[in-house]
Write a structure and sequence with these properties.
Blueprint lengths: L1 H18 L15 E7 L7 E7 L4 E8 L5 E10 L2 E6 L9 E6 L3 E6 L5 E7 L3 H5 L17
Antiparallel strand pairs: 1-2, 1-8, 2-3, 3-4, 4-5, 5-6, 6-7, 7-8
């Protein structure tokens, strides 16, 4: 009887110790982000498409948007950052619809407020997926009602 009790105690201790073997290391977040994905726009989570924004160190940008159209539309251009305000111009010479005040910027979030209509947009850091970059549909394939540029 004593032998059986000892075996039970040893088995229980072994079981409890196995559950305590967790790692003290913090879960590392991936750092291979190359852009931002629009997560929320104007306090709404119901977006009718997807928008990816890549802001490059050489002050160029690429915008991949799929809003009410098949495939992604790729738009490029240049941007400036004066203080905490972003402004830009598309490659065709058209300026962005608004300048945007940077309200918050961390390694994983970018919150912008439109200076034209006060709309807040929240972007999360992502690696822009190949399906967005490779899913670009040429202007000749798009209908005449293609979505206007998001910015």
């Amino acid at each position: 009887m004593k032998q059986g009790l000892k075996i039970c105690v040893v088995a229980a201790l072994a079981f409890l110790m196995a559950g305590c073997g967790g790692s003290d290391k913090k879960k590392e977040e991936p750092t291979n982000y190359d852009g931002w994905m629009l997560a929320r726009w104007d306090d709404s989570t119901d977006l009718s498409g997807k928008v990816f924004l890549q802001l490059n160190e050489d002050m160029t940008f690429t915008l991949y948007q799929c809003i009410d159209t098949p495939g992604y539309q790729k738009l490029t251009g240049t941007y400036t950052k004066e203080g905490q305000v972003l402004s830009g111009t598309y490659s065709g010479g058209t300026p962005w619809e608004s300048s945007y005040a940077i309200e918050k910027q961390t390694a994983t979030e970018l919150q912008l407020r439109s200076e034209t209509n006060d709309i807040v947009s929240l972007y999360t850091a992502v690696e822009i997926p190949a399906y967005a970059k490779d899913g670009v549909v040429g202007a000749g394939v798009r209908s005449s009602g293609a979505a206007k540029p998001f910015l």
